[in-house]
From TrEMBL:
<dbReference type="InterPro" id="IPR036188">
    <property type="entry name" value="FAD/NAD-bd_sf"/>
</dbReference>
<feature type="active site" description="Proton acceptor">
    <location>
        <position position="445"/>
    </location>
</feature>
<keyword id="KW-0732">Signal</keyword>
<comment type="similarity">
    <text>Belongs to the GMC oxidoreductase family.</text>
</comment>
<dbReference type="InterPro" id="IPR012132">
    <property type="entry name" value="GMC_OxRdtase"/>
</dbReference>
<feature type="domain" description="Glucose-methanol-choline oxidoreductase N-terminal">
    <location>
        <begin position="85"/>
        <end position="108"/>
    </location>
</feature>
<feature type="binding site">
    <location>
        <position position="225"/>
    </location>
    <ligand>
        <name>FAD</name>
    </ligand>
</feature>
<feature type="binding site">
    <location>
        <position position="91"/>
    </location>
    <ligand>
        <name>FAD</name>
    </ligand>
</feature>
<protein>
    <recommendedName>
        <fullName>Glucose-methanol-choline oxidoreductase N-terminal domain-containing protein</fullName>
    </recommendedName>
</protein>
<dbReference type="Pfam" id="PF05199">
    <property type="entry name" value="GMC_oxred_C"/>
</dbReference>
<feature type="binding site">
    <location>
        <position position="87"/>
    </location>
    <ligand>
        <name>FAD</name>
    </ligand>
</feature>
<dbReference type="InterPro" id="IPR000172">
    <property type="entry name" value="GMC_OxRdtase_N"/>
</dbReference>
<feature type="signal peptide">
    <location>
        <begin position="1"/>
        <end position="27"/>
    </location>
</feature>
<keyword id="KW-0274">FAD</keyword>
<dbReference type="Pfam" id="PF00732">
    <property type="entry name" value="GMC_oxred_N"/>
</dbReference>
<dbReference type="GO" id="GO:0050660">
    <property type="term" value="F:flavin adenine dinucleotide binding"/>
</dbReference>
<dbReference type="GO" id="GO:0016614">
    <property type="term" value="F:oxidoreductase activity, acting on CH-OH group of donors"/>
</dbReference>
């Protein structure tokens, strides 16, 4: 059996199965503890470089992103960076470690479209199965589990702006909540996939504990899967992210408990690392950095930023294989802002950040907007809707939650590739179990859901295996 996913560990419980973890990248010092961290607009008022370094290493993927005339004005070649973790542990080894499962309505929608077994109530046990929640105050929550492999904890270090932002968000009308619990619309310090402040990737959480004592596990690094042979067996802040606030735009047609955007508050800004990592990771042009952010280098700790991330955009991108050669990269066509509605949601969420920044809690720490205009938007009056629209088109990029390239659904739907058992349509013994099967963008980040998919797939494979054995050993009585 070949499995490109970390969820090999579940299958290893079936000792008679041989499990290969195949990675086309390297095995970085994943088990080295020095691996925390990640990377809007900036407000006046510590970032570790690991994540940025890894993103920069995988930057070559931007070469395969097509430029889009409506956006990325602030990026080199008008291209957004599309890094991927081609290492043991996959993208969980380079991501920002935000643990956010999504909204119950996301999964209920999957199920309503024929993906039986994938409703929220059915996937919740799988989210919980992999989780070891070390979340103070949530010890007795029915939404969390303390006995899984993947550590989830609140970030231990909190800056003064983070504390003020959370207080400000509450003063602006948001309630403090567990966004992985009963409801999502509110505000919270970020829950992170770290263990005592150290990154807990798929490899460190699932493979490391068992890699030396499972004879049926083979880890193949620097190995690229080219063919599938049919018929044969085969430091503690997480990149500066400190709190999340879930925003519902006034024009939304969706139910009130289904937020449209997430406000990600970060201690620091692009200038915190003097433009060396974060802005490079995002492919931001140096002239933009110099004009807007460089002056902030004089005040290394007196600023914070907010990123606004839209959930469920109307504009949908796609990728296309260039040819049949497995060594040739596909081409990515992100299509951001094809529909103006998406831009308007980011505009409204940006104005919401400004509203929170004007609350008494935020004013008490002297918050003001860093009002150096972006050079290409300087003809517009700073702070007007049109200025922010221009700014959004200049600096927006992706938080890397690409999904749906191998969409799950019924075979009657020509846009789908796998069925609800994750079998490729028409091919019984080939399954796909990663984020590509997610049918629609979720109201969250995609790491937690990839673990859930892996857990569920492992259970389905085990159930099939047991079924097959039962068939083979069927005893007939005469
Ligand atoms: C910079 C960045 C930051 C992110 N931050 C967050 C965050 O804070 N929170 C969050 O929830 N999500 C975040 N994400 C998204 C999240 O990490 C990913 O969606 C998730 O890890 C994807 O898991 P996956 O199993 O689908 O794929 P991956 O983890 O990417 O695994 C794919 C694996 O397959 C291997 N592979 C691919 N092709 C081949 C081949 N032909 N042969 C052999 N092996 C192959 C790769 O080497 C890789 O190991 C971030 C993503 C990025 C890029």
């Amino acid at each position: 059996m070949w499995l490109p996913s970390f969820h090999a560990t579940q299958l290893l419980q079936l000792l008679c199965l041989q499990v290969f973890v195949v990675k086309c990248g390297m095995s970085i010092h994943l088990f080295n503890p020095y691996q925390p961290p990640v990377y809007g607009f900036t407000l006046d008022n510590s970032i570790d470089h690991y994540t940025y370094l890894m993103q920069n290493i995988s930057q070559h993927m931007k070469d395969y992103v097509t430029p889009y005339p409506q956006t990325y004005f602030g990026m080199y070649d008008q291209k957004c960076a599309f890094p991927r973790g081609k290492v043991l542990g996959g993208t969980s080894a380079i991501n920002y470690m935000i643990y956010n499962r999504g909204n119950r309505r996301d999964f209920d929608r999957w199920a309503q479209e024929g993906n039986y077994g994938w409703s929220y109530n059915e996937v919740l046990p799988y989210f919980k199965k992999s989780e070891r929640a070390m979340l103070k105050g949530l010890e007795n929550s029915p939404y969390h589990n303390r006995n899984g492999n993947l550590n989830v904890e609140y970030v231990a270090y909190r800056t003064a702006p983070a504390r003020a932002f959370l207080k400000g968000a509450r003063q602006a009308g948001y309630r403090k909540l567990d966004y992985n619990g009963e409801s999502q619309v509110g505000t919270s310090y970020v829950q992170a996939t770290t263990s005592r402040g150290v990154r807990h990737s798929a490899a460190s959480a699932f493979l490391r504990p068992i890699m030396h004592n499972r004879p049926n596990l083979k880890i193949l690094i620097n190995s690229h899967v080219k063919d599938y042979l049919f018929g044969k067996g085969l430091f503690t802040m997480i990149g500066g992210v400190e709190s999340l606030t879930f925003y519902k735009s006034p024009n939304s047609q969706d139910p009130p408990d289904w937020p449209d955007a997430e406000i990600i508050q970060l201690g620091g800004s692009f200038a915190s690392d003097e433009g060396a990592g974060v802005s490079r990771g995002m492919n931001i042009r140096r002239d933009i950095y110099e004009a807007v952010y460089k002056p902030l280098e004089r005040y290394p700790t007196d600023h914070w930023s907010a990123f606004v991330m839209q959930f469920r955009p109307k504009s949908i991108g796609y990728l296309r294989l260039q040819d049949k050669n497995p060594w040739h990269w596909p081409k990515f066509y992100p299509n951001y802002f094809k529909y103006e509605e998406d831009l308007e949601i980011l505009l409204e969420a940006t104005k919401e950040v400004i509203r929170i920044s004007q609350t008494p809690a935020m004013q008490a720490i002297g918050t003001r907007i860093w009002d150096r205009p972006l050079p290409n938007c300087a003809h517009l009056h700073f702070g007007t809707d049109d200025y922010w629209r221009c700014s959004i088109r200049t600096l927006s990029c992706t938080l890397h939650h690409q999904v749906g390239t191998c969409k799950m659904g019924l075979s009657s739907d020509p846009t789908t590739i796998v069925d609800p058992h994750l079998h490729v349509h028409g091919i019984q013994r080939l399954r796909v179990a990663d984020n590509s099967i997610i049918p629609y963008p979720i109201t969250g980040h995609t790491n937690a859901v990839s673990f859930m998919i892996g857990e569920k797939c492992a259970d389905m494979i085990k159930a099939d295996w047991v079924d097959e054995r039962m068939q083979k050993t069927k005893i007939t009585f005469h």
